[in-house]
Fold this protein.
Amino acid sequence: MNLSLRFLGVGGAQSPELGSACGVLERDGRPSLMIDCGAEALSAYLARYGEPPRAVYVTHTHMDHVGGLERLFYRLYFDESWRGRVRLYAHAALVPLLQARIADYPEVLAEGGANFWDAFALVPLSRGFWHDGMWFDVFATRHHAPNSSFGLSLGGSFVWTGDTRPVPEMLSRYAAHGEMVAHDCSLVGNPSHTGVDDLEREYPQELRTRLVLYHYASLADAEHMRRCGYRVAHREENAVLASPLRVVEPVGAV
Ligand SMILES: [Zn+2]
């Protein structure tokens, strides 16, 4: 199995020219799991892969992470080969927020007859989930209200923090096996996001060498963070990953 993580978008909410923050796990060169689906991320995904995502993991429900889902509904619903088949993984605590922010529009079709969730296979989760024969751990991060944002870890392979302040207590557990850690980071931190000045205080040196920073405000900021000694993701960069720890062959596979 050859895995890689493509940074489809690396910008913060005020930097759409860098793309909505989004990663795509690729397996043997094909997309396996899209992480977050902002409006710009969906456009970038369709441009690169030529078809909608077959699986999406949602870290939290800020619009630069879920704003593409309404458009995705219309793309999926009217095509029977896609309707109801795209898996949407979300922590159970996010389901009421997804409902309120994305799915609760009165009459998703003007003529009636459809529910928003008819287009998707929603998979609420708590500790983690199986996808494509791989186990993904999910962990709470620090971004706005407690229990409203969740990072993702494919043990032995990669971690995607989503938007967050530093989370050393989580990464000591969920990035304990040499994973590459894609981490929210801007030049200057704030109560919602990590700053490059936070990293040295919060994380041990060994972990800092495994960070790949994204969710920054500008290319100039990215250059500055590189001069501070950090690896910073380019938009569209495809990072090669190590093999995950827990893999099973799907039932019925030959
Ligand atoms: Zn956010």
Summary: The pocket of zinc ion is lined by residues 60, 62, 143, 163 (CB under 6 Å). The chain has a mean pLDDT of 96. The chain is about 25% helix and 25% strand. The longest helix spans residues 39-49.
